[in-house]
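Consortium newsletter contribution from the modelling node. Members have asked for a concrete example of what our holo predictions look like. Here is one, prepared for the S-adenosylmethionine complex that several groups have been discussing at recent meetings.
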Amino acid sequence: MRLFATCARGLEPVLADELRALGADQIEPGRGGVAFAGDQALLYQSNLWLRTAIRVLRPILQATVHSADELYDAVQTVDWSRYLTPEHTLAVDCNVRDSALTHSHYAALKTKDAICDWCVRRWGRRPNVDVRTPLIALNLHIERNHAVLSLDSSGESLHKRGYRPILTKAPLNEALAAGLLMLAGYDGRKPLIDPMCGSGTLPIEAAWLALRRPPGLTRKRFGFQAWLDFDVGLWTAMRDEARRGVGRRLPAPIAGSDRRRDAVAFARANARAAGVGHLVTFTQRDVRLLVPPAGPPGVLICNPPYGERIGTDEELRVLYGALGEVLRRFAGWSVWLFTGNAALAAEIGLEPVRSIALFNGAIRCRLLGFEP
Ligand SMILES: C[S@@+](CC[C@H](N)C(=O)[O-])C[C@H]1O[C@@H](n2cnc3c(N)ncnc32)[C@H](O)[C@@H]1O
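And here is the predicted structure:
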């Protein structure tokens, strides 16, 4: 079957690599996601293993639609008894771009009506709507009048790993953090340091990567578990095998630090919730005091404040200048900075050897690579 995994813009090549590693076929990176082909096992594997994906969609209808009525008619052509019963609860999520239909909420409503009317004709009953935790979640994407209606096999967004209940200021989305680590070439075998770790997302994602722990291992529910064709035996065997493969020790140290005491406390709590609290070290320290640890060089990666959400400009210019000094101490290391402010990045005074465009939500950002 054809499938589509969504991700933050800029991470498509990383997601494509992840899919290749899982054995997916016909991999085609697009905008904000990657199309691929695979069977039911691959659908489950991708939900369990993909670190950079936000959700995995299974398209069931494609149609050209110029109006709400055309959309309604197209949705009615689907044999819904293949996918749901009146006992299922339902929700439709919709996004529209450059199309005659401009209101995503209205398009979602029309789709839901079409499905419910179809069910009433077939069974005399219709599924209830549950926008928060539907058993069957549908995603409607309309771009230049081309509508794709998909079953959402993930349900809740895959970046919600479950280890970060507590939010500090400006945390990094977990899937984006994993993507940054992979773009930085981190594979778990070298030491890793994040000297501005905030809630600890980069060190925690690094630990999961290094231990080969799938991000979906302890997740309570995936969308596909409510599908009519859910193969509980296949899923449980797959998850149990993945669990047995999780490493117990880190091949190389992972450390985070932050100048804020509360951030360090949050990071520790999150790491414990992620099952890696005993493996990752968190320290309260100003980045200006950072020196390379003894031992072989590794990867230094961080996401300093960049003004969109925290910090003031002058303070930040001074901070980025100081960061430049610190990074120069890390000769032989692979050094990466993720920032949404190019002017501030210039204050570092080092020429980046790599510059990768990415989005953090709606904010244009860059992952800058240095070889000090
Ligand atoms: C954008 S946040 C990092 C978010 C983090 N990646 C996460 O996932 O939660 C920037 C962090 O830099 C820290 N910070 C700011 N100035 C610092 C300094 N001089 N030394 C160390 N940490 C600093 C802040 O306390 C904040 O936690």
